[in-house]
């Protein structure tokens, strides 16, 4: 089932396994038995530390044992597509290998109040699902009373319907939808602490730096590399290295690289940062900043960092409509990722809100699988590139409304049934029947945590000068959250470098005092 190149790669990945593992597969009589057993047979074949055991038990799942003891991870269905990596990492992580959270985050995970039992629903074509599943698997391996089950929805449609799952990833605790949509470990940990509570967290000592960068995207990574190269003690604090880049599919305008994809670029950023003596504090969210000659950053979980220079590079996030019915229906019909959630609406009517490039591209993509696509644009004409507009207008199952102001998401108590919009030309309210609403109206700067620290413009962007300096001495900003025009990866990288060099210049001029060597 797996090609020879993949098998050779797995042999290398599993060459240093220390423990013995058993893959307990239950699939007797299932229509996809051959597919699941074949996959697990191939995985087991690459190492004498892995054994496949076919069981007669009911179900369609794979359980794991390490040295004869059950692991707290279950995979239901066939973990193909993007979830194949989840299968491979389940074994690798159980062996203590791979990329793990540091001790500060492990302490927060261990402090969660158990028992915790979660079920995550995914699809193999979902690009955001692996991050959620793999983060929860790691938590289950760290916490003493944490069970996590991944369900690949293809073979469990009745269960999906009964649970009223309308998008993936969807994380369920009992009868409660705990989370829907993309998330990193930091966001998931916040939600688990809110839902289950947490005991006393083992604290770590205050860390001191010359430069601390908040944000791990192209701007933050660039700033960190430039300050580290100048000999400044540097830390990068981020929820996830790569930031918004992780959600980008094809990238064709990063000069000298004809084509790459977001996750690959994010991995390259991490590798490049790791080449320098930079402390990577990932899965962190800064809760409070205390200004002074040295800035104090207080993070959730009690960790504290002090720094002479602070670079803000937290980028931007998907902009929401802010209309009734939107927030409460996220994961139950309201979505932001057509690539991830589109397959759930096969042969069903959907609405796309937003007439820019992302909105029109989404409408074109969804038209290939959905029965009907209605595109709503607030302005009197679409803002997308002409070639995209021409393509959308040529599709028989795409209807376009301009001068349309989304007013309300309609639901039946369980899921979305449509959207109400105002015809701005006539002033009349109109309704579109739909099972899904895809919101594609751009990005909003992640600047809210810094509103009391630095100057923002009316759009929420941090105001910077030509050197990335803010109105606060020792505080710099770079990337998509600033007033610099054109939100592009290559521009963010340049601005991050500029912020790092400006910080070094201020240290050299004595405007900021470095740590004593």
Attribute tags:
Glutaredoxin, FAD/NAD(P)-binding domain, 3 domains, 8-stranded mixed beta sheet, 7-stranded mixed beta sheet, 13 helices
What does this structure look like?
The protein folds into three domains: 4-196, Glutaredoxin, CATH 3.40.30.80; 207-317 and 443-508, FAD/NAD(P)-binding domain, CATH 3.50.50.60; 327-439, FAD/NAD(P)-binding domain (3-Layer(bba) Sandwich), CATH 3.50.50. A hairpin with a 5-residue loop joins strand 23 and strand 24 (429-433). By secondary structure, the chain is of the alpha/beta class. The longest helix is centred in the C-terminal third of the chain and has 20 residues, at 489-508. The N and C termini lie far apart (57 Å). It has helices at residues 4-13, 33-44, 84-94, 103-110, 129-142, 157-163, 185-196, 218-229, 262-274, 338-341, 357-367, 386-394, 489-508; strands at 21-26, 50-55, 61-66, 69-76, 116-122, 146-152, 170-173, 176-180, 207-214, 234-238, 250-251, 260-261, 278-282, 286-290, 295-299, 304-312, 316-318, 334-335, 349-353, 372-376, 398-401, 404-411, 416-423, 429-433, 436-439, 443-445, 475-477. The strands form six sheets. Strands 2-1-3-4-6-5-7-8 form an eight-stranded mixed β-sheet, with helices on one face. Strands 9, 10, 13, 14, 15, 16 and 27 form a seven-stranded mixed β-sheet that branches. A five-stranded parallel β-sheet has the order 18-25-19-20-21. The mean pLDDT is 94. 28% of the residues lie in helices and 27% in strands. Disulfide bonds join 337-340. Pfam families: Pyr_redox_2, Thioredoxin_3. GO terms for molecular function: flavin adenine dinucleotide binding; NAD binding; NADH-dependent peroxiredoxin activity; oxidoreductase activity, acting on a sulfur group of donors, NAD(P) as acceptor. InterPro entries: Alkyl_hydroperoxide_Rdtase_suF, FAD/NAD-bd_sf, FAD/NAD-binding_dom, Ferredoxin-NADP_redctase_2, Pyr_nucl-diS_OxRdtase_2_AS, Thioredoxin-like_fold, Thioredoxin-like_sf.
